[in-house]
Amino acid sequence: MDDKPKHPGGSSSPWMGTTPKLGKTGQFPPGKASAHDEGSLNFAIGERDGNVLIDFGTPVKWMAMPPEQAVAMAQTLIAKARIVARRQGKSLTVVL
Q1: Which of 36, 72, 82, 83 has an alpha carbon 20 to 30 Å from 46's alpha carbon atom?
Q2: Whole-angstrom distance, CA of residue 20 vs CA of residue 12
């Protein structure tokens, strides 16, 4: 099975449905975090083969975000994990 999207950085990912163009946006909304910062990127959180999947649309070495965005990403990942687990007859407990 090919793990690469059919449309890398394109408008849809084969396992995510229609999404905004994934990958680099060429923008630096809060400014550059470091000399190696490549700017913001669009990514999608979905599921594939019973797993939670994050599709960045491009290779990613690191990412940084404000605390509010980190919490929002964590909440989205937890919500998706619960959906995937429920489909498998499992329940998840999250301890913060």
Answers
A1: 36
A2: 7
pLDDT per residue as tens digits for the range 44-95: 999 999 999 999 999 998 888 889 999 999 999 999 999 999 999 999 999 9
Rg, C-alpha atoms of the chain: 15
Q: Report the candidate in 3, 86, 17, 84 with the shortest Cα–Cα distance to residue 50.
A: 84
Tell me the sheet residues that pair with 34: none
Question: By C-alpha distance, which of 56, 48, 51, 49 is closest to 19?
Answer: 56
Model pTM score = 0.72
Q: 40 phi and psi, to 5 degrees?
A: -75, 160
